[in-house]
Each structure stands twice: as C-alpha cells, then as structure tokens.
Amino acid sequence: MAFGQELAPPAAAEAAASEPVAGTERVTITGRRPVDVGPMPGLMLSRDQIPANLQSAGRRDIKASRALNLGDFMNSQLQGVTANDYQGNPFQLDVNYRGFTASPQVGTPQGLSVFFDGVRVNEPFGDVVNWDLIPLNAVERFDLFPGSNPLFGLNTLGGAVSVRSRTGFSSPGVEGQLMGGSWGRRQLQLAGGANDGTLGGFFALTRFDEDGWRDNSPSRVEQAFGRADWHGERASAYASVLYAGNRLVGNGLIPIQLYRQNPDAVFTSPDESRNRVLQFSVGGQYDLSDRANITAQLYHRDSRRRGVNGDIYADFEDFGDRDIGPDGTARNGATRGGGYTGPGLVDGTPIGQITRTDLDQRSVGASLQFNWNLPQHAFMAGVSIDRSRTGYDMFQRLGLIDASHRVYLAPDQIDPDYYAAEHDVPGNNFDGTSTTRSLYVQETWTPVQSFSLTAAARYNHTKVDNELLTRTTAGQVALHELREFRAPEYTDGQVFLRTRSEESFSYRSFNPSLGANWRPTEMSNLFGNLSRGARTPSVVELGCAFDPTPVPRVPGVPSLGTAPRSLVGPGCNMPTSLSSDPYLPQIRATSGEIGWRQRLSADWNWNLSLFRTDLANDIYFVGVGDGRSYFDTIGKTRRQGLEFGVEGRMGPVDLRANYSFTDATFQSRFYMLSPHNSSADFDQNSAYVGDTQVIGQDVLPSPNAELNRGYGTYRMIRVDPGARMPGIAAHALNLRVGWRVTPAVKLGLTMMARSMSYMRGNENNLHQAAGTDQEIGRYYCSQAGGCEFGGFSQLPVRIGRPFETSGKVPGFAVFNLDASVELTKGVNAFVQVTNLFDREYFSAGRLGVNPFAPSVNGAVGPSGWNYNSSEWQNTSMVAPGAPRGVFVGIAWDLGARP
C-alpha cells in the first residue's frame, strides 16, 4: 500500500503511480514515486522531496478496502483521521483530520479543502464537502497533504485532499463489483477503460441502495463518470464529466434513553437530502521542452441540494398563557401559574416542524500553470480564478409527530389559530456570488541529492457579494406566535413583508510556506515545514454573524430604546436562518511540522511526525444574549499532536499500524448558549438587560448580566483556554492484519479504536451527570413609582430537570473481517463482516433534551411526546454506530493490466 511512510515503493507500485493523470504524459523517476504537489499537474516531485507526512492510496488499495466512499476509507486506513456520524448516514460523515473537518453539514466549521482532478469540490455556500458526490470507483489515487499548504488555496487550514481520476491509459480493461447483504444493501459498480496509444477513454458507474439499519433511513446513490484523453507527441488533453443524483436519509442523533429502549429508533424523521451534481472539466498539457511544460484547465460545476427535515418544535417550551385550548387548558402544562403541574393539551397542539430548503450552487473556474522540472530545481508558477453563485431558499411549517416519530403536516388536526400550520412561512433567503483570484509559485531546490529546500507562496483576493431577503422586524417571531385571529393584513405583513439587504466584502491574503528534506541515508528522510493559510468566512457564517449595531427596538418608536441589530432580529438555528451581514475577519492559520520516515528493509518502514496549527480569528457559534446564537470571531484555537505509522510483512502476513494523538483546544475565552449543560448559568437575572424603558419597569440584574460583552450569560457556558473541542478523539489507532492463506485465498482483520471525546454543547468540558437545570426567577419591580430601595418581586419558574447523562462519548474499538477467494483469473468472491463483535458504540454526540419522556403530571400523546415540558429529560444525544453487518459479493477485473 502506498501510504505516507513509504520512501521507495516497489517497482510495480511505482509504475502504477506514474501513469498519466489529468492530461499529462507518463513520467518515471527511478526509485521514487512522482507526486503532483498541487491541484494542477505538471510539476512532479518524488515523495522524499515533500517536507510533510504525505499519505496516499491507489485504486487497488481503495478497492481492497471495500469502503463505501472516500471518507469511509480515510477513517479506517489513514493516520490522524477520524469520522463522526452526526447525520446517521454512511455517506454523510464528518471527516476530521488533525482536528480539522470536512463535513456535509451546513454550518460546521470547515478546515480541509478537497479537489477532484483539480476542481475544488467544497461547496460555495458553507465550504461543505458532500462525500457522496465523489465516485470511489473512478479514483486512480488520492493524496492527503497535511498543514496549511498554500498551493491549495482557501480553506486549507489543516490539510488538503487531492483526488485524481482514472483514465483509459491508467486503467485499461473492464471491471465490476456486485455486492449485497445486511439492511437491504445492494451495490453495483462498473468501470472500464481502453486506449490505442493516442486516444483513451474511461467510464465508471455506481448504483447503491439500502433500507438502512435504523427506522425510516433508506438511501440511494447513483454516480457516473466519464473521461476522454488524447496524447500527442508534445501535447495532451482531456475532457471529463461527473454526474451524481443521490437521495440520502440521515436521521441524526438520538436521545440515549430512546436508544436503550430501541437501538433502531430515530428521534424524528424525515431528514432527507437530495444531492445532485453535474461537473464538466477540460484541460491539457503542452511540453515546451523535455524539462518545461504548461498545464491548463477549465471547469463548470453545478450542484443542487433539496432538503426536507422533520424536527421537534423546539419552541414548544416557550408556549405561554395565550397558547390554551377552548377549555382553558394550557398546551404546555409547564406554563400555567407557579405550580407547573398541568397535564398539557394534546389535541390541536403543534409539536413538530417541517423545514424545506433549496440550495443551488454554480461554480466556474480556470487555471494556468507553468512548470520547470530541472535537475536541481523544480519550479512552478500559476494563476487561477474561481467564481461561484449561490441561491438559498427556506420555508417552514408546523406539524405533528406520529408513533414512529415521523413529522407530518396536518393542518386539519391543528388548532386553526396557528397560521404556520396551514401556510408555508418563508425564512431568510439568500443569493450571492464569490470570486477568488490567485497567484501562486513553488520552488524545490535540490543542491545535493540528500537535501531539498522547498518554498511556496500564494496570494488570494476574494470578493463576496451577498443579497439577503429577510422578514421584517415585526415578523421575527416564533412560528407559534403567528396567529390567524389577527387581521390578515397584519399576519401576512409579518410573514411576507420582506427587507432586502446587500453586502459586499473583500478579503486578501498572502500565504507563504518553507520546508526542507534531509536524507542522511538512502533509506531515511528527516523533514520539516512552516506554512500559513487562510479561510474567508463562508456565506453561512457571514449571513448568521452577530451584528452589534444599535437599532430601535421597535421601528418608528425611538422612545422605546435601542438594542443590537441581531437581538432585534432572529437568532440563527443553522442551517435555516440568515440575517444581515456584518463583517467577519478571515481566519488565519500558522502550521508547523517535523518528522522522520525510514525504510528499515525491503519489507518494513515507519514514520513519525509532530505537528501544530494555530488559528487566529477562528469562528464559532456563540451566545450573545436573549437566548440567541450567532457566528462570531472567538480568537485563537490550536491543534497539535503526533502521528506514528509502521507497516511491513512477514512471509504471508501483512501488518500495518497507524496511531495519532490530536490535542484540539480553544485558546481564547468566549460564551456560548448551552442550556442542557449542567454548568450553564440558570439565573434569569443574568440575562441581557438592555434598555429598561423597554421593559417598562426596573429589574435587578445579577453581576453576570454585565459579562459576555454586556449581553449576559443566562443559559450560557463559559469556555476557557485549554478546553478541548468536541467531536475530536485525542487518541486514534488503526490496525490491519492481512493473511495470504494461499495465492487464491486472503483473510484480513481491521481494528479501529478511538478514545473518549466531548459532545457538542460541552465545549467547556465541565458538564456532569449531577444537579438540575433549576432556574432562578427574574426579579422585577412590582410597585408603581419604582423600587429604588426594595419591593422587588420574582417571576415563577418551572421545576428543575435533573442531569443524568455524561457529556462525553466513550471510547470504543470496532473490528471488521474480510475474506476473498479467487474463483478464476480476474474473478473473486468476497465476504465482509463489519462490527464483527456487534459492539454498541457512539461516534459523536451533543447535549440536548428529550421530549418523549415519561410523565407524572403531564399528558403523553400517541407519539410519546410529553405535553408538560417540565418533565422533559436533559439528555445526551448520540450518534450510534451500525450493528454487525454481513455483506457478500463478487468482483471481476478482466483485461486490465496486472
């Protein structure tokens, strides 16, 4: 296998690696595998000239792994990589590398850039990566570059994944795989290539279906890729097309109590994403001489996501005295008087929410690169331009939840007073463009064979133009506050009277890097590098950034005082809500790495590297008062650690071990909303006070009301420097043992072990399974004329709900078994058993609340919903791993090069 610790792979692996890619001619460097060092081909360096722990894999490695997608492969095979399954779908993994994430979830801070044949596949709207849109059987190889490598441009904070496609020259012959097994999984893969020495063609097709191991969780993946290549005497060219149309249902996290009752259950459904991409790319290379060439590329990428998400109606807890039935019974039994013992009203009460989103993204770009491959110098210089346009629309309605926890619309069964049960309520919709222009250079100087010095730099200029259409201030209310009994012109005005805002931002960055390789012996390599990188705030972060600009609390009534613009408008429940766009500075990364790799013998090699990346102006979803959250700059964060790998063979047995330690921490103090964390501030007097004239009476704030920039700390936690980031396991170990029983029979056992990690919502690492969320009621003046010396009264509060679960995801180890038998030349039968010992484990989690809770004083409906929110359970929402799965199949490889 061609992983990062290799210095001089065997000749067969070297020959496969040196096949032409992206329109280049074949280049062979004796004893070293050539590597493209950026998104564009043309400059070819050997691995021991790259001053970083580069990790790579070829198509044979990928095929042998039986992985479903690139993220799945990286999680089980590479150093420093872990995956979180927040979505509950194998094609929607959060892939973490050295504490940085490439995720399909809009709103997740991204820190890895991903390229397919030089085309950046991070989507414009939130820099997300949809792993389901990369067909694995079209991949010739991929390289994982660590650190803030400037050659890969924006968003390369912690690393870059460069994927190269197969061609008719590198993959002649016809191959396929048919597989089926547990959970109704069915997969068909076909691929074929051919060439006549001048013209080559390649295609790859994939069809995947499964019912899913959890309730209401089917998925369908359809992928197609085609490529044509022409090789002339001094020039080459290619054209490719990529299409994918997928329907993914990921029903996300589940309360730990519900999981223990029924591991197959879902919290709410549906949570469906329909992803589609159509990408065209053309490129080529012209050889100016034996040592110099020009490479160029044009691309057009059109992607679309349609989402339907069924969720609990989280604002049910805010139902007040106006939310009552015809008989005067409160819809939420915890909102009446001071006793909070009412049952709550089941009939006609909306408890679910359906959100529909429509996201269209179109990107075009061009690159031009000059390359000189000289005996002592490898130099490149390039220019690129990338332009994207994004449109986003969102609509919401109130609904009900059935016994299987499916959210559905039923306006005839909901009290007609609720406007949002019968009408689509538009959200804050968006349209914007982003243009990035870049210049970049790299020079690798090798004055003597044993030493190389590499310097690189990239200049980026990004211009972002956004246009947002938002509901007016009067319409920024919760869905249940939109009432039919009001005059239609008033209610419709709240919903449809929109404010259009336009914003434009420009970002510039100059990102250099410097690295060195020293080879004291032919079999060893000492390397080190320093680099800087940058990420401009994504559209989501800009659109949901906190704006402290003072504005009137009520337009046209200045006597009622002012408040920050964002606190007058809505909070941001990602990914559904956007607001006007205040400026956020770009994130700057500074990375360093030192390491050693060595080939001990013809069969054994190892590597060790130490790394650190510090971010300035990092962005996080923070609390700013009034129970609201926005993206804002939080200061500094840090990722540091080490990676160690060793692999080799002993006769018929192959062994590989990859270990990584990742310490990902916050380095600046900030506050964030986390009402289900036991260490949160539950004193209502710690809330944002604002202008007392608006409140209409004096209040008695606690000292904490002055903290958090004066926006208070009610229901918030304080995150201090040194707190570990959620979702990142400190220790990760991947082991692999392969046994060639006979030339035709192979067995393999893989282990993935991960240590404990913290849940989202426990960013301060202080949550405990102890105490309750008992609140302290707000003190207010109950006397006419003021309460200068006394007379304050206190608002009633609900009873506290206990904390009974941990804010940590336990460590785990999972084993996978595989076996294959060669039936005849080029035809193999295989079996794969995942989670061999049927281990119950969780890959991720967050703190939350479970409304499907048992009741003493409340009413429980057919769905299990408790209509008295004071009896809801503070809980840990977990991402359960799949149980044991057994899959069998047959694979054929006919006419291909051995």
Verbal overview:
By secondary structure, the protein is mainly β. The protein is globular. It folds into two domains: 11-165, TonB-dependent receptor, plug domain (Ferric Hydroxamate Uptake Protein, Chain A, domain 1, Beta Complex); 173-680 and 715-769 and 804-894, TonB-dependent receptor, beta-barrel domain (Maltoporin, Chain A, Beta Barrel). It is built from nine helices and 45 strands. The longest helix has 9 residues, at 488-496. The chain has a 22-stranded antiparallel β-barrel. The chain has a five-stranded mixed beta sheet with strand order 3-9-10-7-8.
What structural category characterises the helix and strand content? mainly beta
Mean pLDDT figure: 87
Strand content: over 45%
- Give the overall shape, derived from the CA principal axes: globular
The number of distinct β-strands equals: 45
Number of helices: 9
Number of domains: 2
CATH architecture of the largest domain: Beta Barrel
First CA to last CA: what distance?
Answer: 15 Å
CATH class of the largest domain: Mainly Beta
According to CATH, the homologous superfamily of the largest domain is TonB-dependent receptor, beta-barrel domain
What fraction, in percent, of the residue positions are helical? under 10%
Tell me the CATH topology of the largest domain: Maltoporin, Chain A
- The low-confidence runs, each spanning 5 or more residues with pLDDT under 50, are 1-32, 573-581, 691-696
Radius of gyration: 29 Å
Q: Major beta sheet, specifics? A: 22 strands, antiparallel, barrel
Pfam families: Plug, TonB_dep_Rec_b-barrel
Biased composition (Low complexity): 1-22
GO molecular function: siderophore uptake transmembrane transporter activity
Main location: membrane
